[in-house]
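[job 0412] stage=complex_fold ligand=pantoate status=START
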Amino acid sequence: MQVTRTLPELRECLTTRPRPIGLVPTMGFLHAGHLALVRRARAECATAAVSIFVNPAQFGPQEDLARYPRDLPRDLRMLESAGADVVWVPEADEVYPRGYQTYVTVGRVAEPLEGAARPGHFRGVATVVAKLFNAFTPDHAYFGQKDAQQAAVIRQMARDLNFPPEIIVCPTIRESDGLAMSSRNTYLDPQERRAAAVLYRALSAAMIAYQRGQRSADNLRAAMRDTLSTEPLAKMEYVSAADPDTLQELDRVDGNALFSMAVRIGKTRLIDNFLLKDGSWDTGLIQGKGE
Ligand code: PAF
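[job 0412] stage=complex_fold status=DONE, emitting C-alpha cells
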C-alpha cells in the first residue's frame, strides 16, 4: 500500500497502477462501513484507492471540524488489512491552496433535509468530491447509503458535469443494536450510545407500518416521530419520507421512497435512513450478519 501526501505524488503513483481504479473518499477515523467500501473496491477494481481528508469546506462554523476524530496510524493499518493499494492524505492547503475560490453548487437535490439543516455542507462535499475525481480519475467511486442525500447530490453532480466514474452506493453497516456506523458515534457516552439505537427502531416502525398497508407519508413520518419521542435523550431535527432521487417529500408511498431522519442525542447529531426500492427494503447490514 502506497501512502501519498501531495497531488503530484498521487498522480505519479497512479500512473503505474492498473485500471480500473476504484476510489473510496473518506474523512478518516475509519470503521467497518468504510472498510466494506474498500473491500468492494478491492473486489471490483484492479486498484483500490482511498482518500483521507477532513474537508473543512463541508463543516459549518458551529460544527465539529476541530474535534472531528482523527487517527491516521490506525486508519492506515485498517486500510492495509482491507487491501487498499493507494492512499492519499493531503494537507488542507494541498486541496485548497492560498487564493482558492472555485466551488461546486448542486441545485434542488441539495436543498432540503441535510442541505437545509447544514447550509453550505453540500457545496463543500460536491467541491471536494469533484477535486477527488480530478485527482484520482477513478473508474468507480464508492459511497455509503447512510449518507443517502450525499450520494444523490454526487450522482447529480457527476451527471451534470460529465464526471466519468460510476457512482456505487453500498449498504449501511450497523452495530448489533442497529445503530449505523459513523465516526461521530465516538462522541456518544454509554447512556447516549444506548439511546442512539432509537433511530433504527424509528425507521423500523415506518417499515412495519408500510408492511401493514400504511401508504400515507404523513402517517409513516408520524410512526417515526412517535418512536423517537419514546427516547428522552433524542431530539428530532427532521423525519422524512421522500423521493430517493429528488428528495422531495411524498404525499403517498406508492413506489420508491427514502425514509430518513436527523436526530440529536445529547450534543451529537446522527442521521440514518431506510430505502424502499422496487418493492424491497434496503435497511443495511448488521455487522457480523453477512458483513
Ligand atoms: O462521506 C464523507 O465522509 C465525506 O462527506 C466525503 C464524501 C469523504 C467528502 O468529504
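The pocket of pantoate is lined by residues 25-27, 55, 58, 125, 128-129, 147, 150 (CB under 6 Å).
[job 0412] exit 0
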